[in-house]
Amino acid sequence: MKRTVAILLLALGAVLGAAASASADGAQAGGDIHVAQTLGGRDLTVIIRRVAEVPGPVHVDVVTHAGSPPGEITLTARAAGAATSTTKVVLGAVPGFHSGVVHVDRPGPWELAVDEATIPFVVPALVSSPWENATYGGFIAAGVLLLVALLFAVFGKPGLALVPTAGMVAAIAVGVTAALLSPSIPPVAAPGTQLDPTYDNINDPYRRTPVADFSRPPVNLVPSMKGEDLVLSLTDGSSGRPVDDLLVHDSAFIHLVVVSPAGTLRHLHPIRTAPGKYRARLHAPEQGTHAIAAEIARRGGGVQLLRSSIDVSGTSAARPHDGKADLATEIREAGRPSTIKARFGERDLQPWLGMLGHMIVVGPLSGGGPVNAPIWAHVHSMIPPTPGMPDQPDESVAAYGPDVPFTYSFPLPGKYLVWIQIERDYEIVTVPAVVDIPAAKGVSEK
Predict the structure, then answer these.
(1) Which residue ranges traverse the bilayer (predicted)?
(2) What does the DSSP assignment read for 213-230?
């Protein structure tokens, strides 16, 4: 009997050890949401911090940039059937971070209103996966069966102890198998990435869904002007219904590029005002036909670039860019990668939209100007890994540069308009340039 008790105690140690090692895999994934917003006369970055517990607070940081007027904005968290939470955030004259706190009382789809702008976001539920349940269920069952077997052994019935011992071995096998296989099982897509988020699928993300193909048709873009505001109407290419399933892509719902007839660039991030409706203000716009490109990421539809144009009745004067940098270029013929490196003098650049720098490319230019340019591109300069720095730094970190390199293969020969954008001292600096791309050898231009 002593030998039986010793074996059972060793088995108990194995169960507890396996359970302790498995508990390290139970952490829930999540992160902050960064959304750039062109809100009237302000260019803001709204950061919705990860929700740690429900019910509980949601910390929101509003980052202002140089030229943003001071004032007060209202943050409101709301969801269907939930209590509304509102707070005021005072934006000072000095650009930087301004904080506010709202509260949520349940997991599910929520909406953060920043004045008239609305930002959908998801409050996740802490839900164990089926293989986590199998792991812990197996270990708990093994522990219970082990205690039953010990009782039989202590009271002198070792023969009866064999039955719960066999069950214990089976339960350990189930728990260990689930623990070993769980790292290789791909996680289920969180509601909001491929599947429209609802209260049901957020609280039970492992439920079976009849949807096998999450792909969705392209989006139609119809621009219009309302005063100085450029209004974008997004509709589904199949049903014609408003498109309200845009994902945060490179820290924005829409990366809107507007190029005036004189070649002035505006890189804006329209606010969502209603399902399928977005708006951005064009301050003192230049008169004439402006070229428009909107880069979006639709749930299940991938990244799309929508092109259009808009006639604007405004002032006749163009707004020149005053950003300056030393440019070093290695321009190759069309179809081969060219390198453009901008040097800004100091190692004090901040990440903007999650990147060290952005380069907008429009061309080759013909008689119609940017409106008829066949190539539009948005090129990134990635944040280099730096010892002692976070992997995903926000705008509070000013420790990068001075060189901002870009590599891009211009597909056609001709003259291109290029704009390089970086952030320094919470100011978005835009440096314009013109690049001439030669034709590949042996290829004649038409």
Answers:
(1) 134-155, 162-181
(2) ------EEEEEEEETTEE
